[in-house]
Amino acid sequence: MKIAGRKSEIRLLESLLEKDEAEFVAIYGRRRVGKTFLIRQVYKQQIVFECSGLHKKKFGQQLENFWLTLQETNAGGKPSLPPKTWLQAFSQLKSYLNILKGEEKKVVFLDEIPWFETPRSGFLGALDNFWNQYCSKREDIILVICGSAASWIIQKVINNRGGLHNRITTHIQLMPFTLWETRSFLEMKNIQLTPKDIVQLYMCVGGIPFYLKNVKQGRSIPQILDDLFFVSQASLKNEFSNLYASLFKNSELHEGIVAALAAKNKGLTRAEIIAKTNINSGGGLTILLNELIACGFVRQTFLPNQKKEKTLYRLIDEYSLFYFKFLNNNKATNSWSQMSDKPIYKIWQGYAFENVCLKHTLPIKKALGISGIITNEYTWMHKGNDTTQGTQIDLVIDRSDNCVNIFELKFHNTDYEISKNYAEQLQQKIEIFKRETATKKNVFLTFITVFGVKKNKYYLSVVTSQLMIDDLFEELTS
Q1: Cβ(145)–Cβ(113) under 8 Å?
Q2: Of 109, 198, 247, 327, whose CA is between 20 and 30 Å from 142?
Q3: Is domain 360-473 classified as CATH 3.40.1350.10?
């Protein structure tokens, strides 16, 4: 199977082939994350019908596309008349499935399913009927629905209050590759990069397989980023204009929220988002934020001992952050080498590395030997007042075993060395954290760097432990 990583998802999907009952599978995740490829690879021998919805097409075009696909699939069968309703279309699909022989599993794969559902089309009702009155009565059917509009699948299917309520038997949110999966993917393409270079690439495009597949052998990181973003035929030059529009209706509202979040590294509260975007504070904003969260673009951070209105929304999609920092309204710069010489690069680099670490808290916990401990992960900031100076902490892992790890994250090109002045600042940061959070737990300071921290006397006076970026590449088994 030509697929990198995805071990737990593959095991789950393969296990369904062994069950003696029908299965209704929903798989969702952001655009370009590899949902269709995963299903086609795992169920290569079992797919008997596959059809994908058409983006922004009307009812008649969706129905015709479904019918034509079924005619091509059943090329040797008796041609059927074009259906006038989705009930008729699914009835034709039932007739086709009825002529297939054998007891082995038969996979019906409906891709980009949100696009099938046009206004007043009756698609969901027909899908409900197809599953409840036909598929569920058989032991050999696996019905797989897939889509990039994660919020649509969650609301309309998984949490459906009508006939599809509680009908989904398995659902998978397919996330971007981890660093370990990213390295595996690149190695499958015979691309050898150092851990530092892989992390730097990840900070720009994240673990999105479609973006990574355009990386070429024998290229440095500046050359790779030029190929992806800056040359005249760059493969991702126009990606942003398609990314949100393909996922959301009224996507300009989603883009407005993302743009506001991109300008504030640590995130914004709901009130701050309203102030910066002028979006009404009613249920509409809640829906927009939930959709961005469901699709993996935004992370909601709950800080301990903070009121609900202080909850932070933070942009965590690497490509979107990279776009707003370096590509949006960029008219003058046409190479990454030029861009990386600007002061904005250093600011972005530190925050992007912080984001990577925030997404890889599971391998961090494993490296610290606390995998089995319940934790809450967040960034922390104190704005300061008349008596206390402001400070921020890149990452906090608050543990249920009466301990807290606070992290300093440094993406440097050489060994990092702690000076006397910096050691005093770190000690002060710890004291401010203890005082302002009123924690009674043990507080441990941990560094995560590229090449390590020199163990001088200042390191020994304040640092409890250190990890390096290699620890972020740890494979996690489940």
Answers
A1: yes
A2: 247
A3: yes
